[in-house]
Amino acid sequence: MSPLAVVAVRTAGAAGLLVLIMALFQRRYFYIYPLGFVGCMIAGGLNGIGSLLYYSALGRIDASLGQLLYSLYPVFVAVVLYLDGHRYSSRTMLRLALSVPAVLLLSWAPSGRVDIVGVGLMLGASLLYAVHIPINQRVLYEAPAPTVTLYTLLAMTLTVVLALVIFDPGAAPASVGALGPILGLTAVTFLSRTTLFAGVKRIGGLETSLIGLGELLVTLLLAWWWLDENLVLQQWIGALLLAGILLMAARGPSDEPMGVPGRGWLHWLLPPSAAEAARQALLSEAPPPTNRSSRVDGEASIDD
Known about the structure:
Blueprint: H1 3-25, H2 34-58, H3 63-70, H4 73-83, H5 90-106, H6 116-140, H7 145-167, H8 176-203, H9 205-212, H10 214-226, H11 233-250, H12 272-284, E1 295-296, E2 299-300
Antiparallel strand pairs: 1-2
Helix pairs in contact: 1-7, 1-8, 2-6, 2-7, 3-6, 4-6, 4-9, 5-11, 7-8, 8-9
């Protein structure tokens, strides 16, 4: 199957499975407030475009280099959330700093000629994936995780299916031999998306992104055990470093602020009630104004 067809089929399959499950058991999760729906559409569209960039980049650069560049998304998530008003402790910043050499070592490969266009495509995919997480995190302040997952997946499906129709209309249908892997990809996409947004709602976007780097470790270890691929010394060092980062997350709760933050660049995604609550919370932290012409029990105050 063509890359675009694989992306379209697995995303549409995951979205269809989620719609079916919610229609049978969780119909109340279909409701979402209008601005939340808009946020999910934007996030899903960005993530869908990122998926297209990702598979396009893999056609130009080695998979190891591509995974290295894509795995920098926690850095982008941290920057985007910082611009939205989030601040983090020194422990989180240390884990973020250690994630870069860990990913570099895990993706170790002999140097060679690098396709600049492919590098740009993969960095774009990583950035778009990073941006969609804070957008969904804002919506998750008011909407349940299954609801956000549903509408984000539907937007992703619309994006990748349109891309398939426009750029690869003559893609061949899946053969019998491809059905098994396609079903597996659909199941993995369904499980990963539902657990991703459940994690973002509970522990925040940056913490979820840092823990999500474990996917690289899982991939390498499974390739070593299941496919008999050999890991070089640098990759084992990177695996130990990444394991240390994940263990640091288990030593205590996330220090990411989980309440509604101040007026960041994504503040417009909050419904009016939540936005007003955030404004009142900010006002309550300020000292009360002094009124020099106040009256007490109808008598003149001392200031007068």
